[in-house]
């Protein structure tokens, strides 16, 4: 009977491999259907695109993914490889789908985009929770900050004070990617999807996913969030609102403004000599 570590390893690797191949197959199948419709229900074009997707997945799995897992089973190289091998080509195919002649007859569905993002979040969650056990109590302090490791209240309602870092990882991961999810959602708006604005949206959305290659507790995460997400997202969202109107809720550009301003102030301005005077609050 396999040990618990072996079962956990097989489960994690199986989920990550599914997150790698399923979005590619779904996005390519939809793209193949679009090409088939444009060519007058030409099944040859459909099966050509499908066969190309199968060849791509097979080549990536045998030549890159499996050797990478075998040589170095570590957190960030796997995440970076996933971004390059899955997220990037999926975004590229989605952009190409918006420019296929005759696509306006097709009702844009959210499934491919949602599947790509859910798979990305799934990979992030697996990499964050990998040091922990799946059963029993959480056995690593990696998931908690130093100020949140106390779980020690007693009494009849003491169970209300209990917390587990493994469940919090799921919430943190979804919140971490919520801004990127909203940005990609804007690209699904018909007026935006059929315009040239779809290019900067998907490009900046992919740039923001590069934060996955940085460990969550790394000091670089704050700078990467400002440079790869909040500042470029703010500029793009303001431009989209000016051009298309309120295609995105004002909550998100306001969030980008506040995060950008607080990052600049606490990182740079608060270090100035004038801000270090004791007379200031």
From TrEMBL:
Keywords: Membrane, Transmembrane, Transmembrane helix. The chain crosses the membrane at residues 9-26, 46-66, 78-96, 108-126, 194-214, 226-246. The keyword Metal-binding does not apply. This is Transmembrane protein 236.
